[in-house]
Amino acid sequence: MRYDTDSGLDIPTWHDTAQERLRLLAEVGLDGTPDAEFDRFAAHVSGTFAAELGSVGQGLYAMVNLFLPEAQTFVGLHNPPGAKPVARTMAPDHGFCPEMLDRTKALVLADVCAKPQFASNPVVDKLGVRTYAGAPLVHEQAGTVLGSVCVVGTSPLPKETRQTCLALIKRHRNALVELLGQRASASGGRHSTGSQGG
């Protein structure tokens, strides 16, 4: 646990909730293995952002990200053509998806460098990430965040695109929740994978 001075509450950390997430992921048939269907989904997410945002939305990475005990694992990954490829795994404290553990709502950062707490993240220097939009995958019954769907880019987006990005990433999260539910039903899974909240 860590103490959050803003809320005055003890907030669970990555490792506090790791075993519960792993159990819930297993219930819905997800084990962190890369999946061609999720890769196609990630490519579709990136393409939709490009179509909706025009030239400023070109070249976005997209991921279907599961929070496993020791790492974030991209079971779905789209590396834009000509861009530096990213690996399938990332440390728990890298990137902006771990923010989902504290907040069960979508997060859009048109320019991650606009806020010091985000500008200092290792992915800014390592990968040149400057923009982020992500939404959490929340297990409906347990209320536990299992992972996220997100896009990142190496150029900041105009501030006026924030609401469009928020609507897009939530729409894709909802579509992914439906896809996961279908897969769980097909394999005899017992629970819904996620909720379609914020």
UniProtKB/TrEMBL annotation:
Pfam families: GAF. Residues 50-159 form the GAF domain. Gene3D superfamilies: 3.30.450.40. This is GAF domain-containing protein. InterPro entries: GAF, GAF-like_dom_sf. Coiled coil: none annotated. It comes from Actinomadura livida. It comes from the Bacteria. PANTHER family: GAF DOMAIN-CONTAINING PROTEIN, SLR1143 PROTEIN. Transmembrane segments: none annotated.
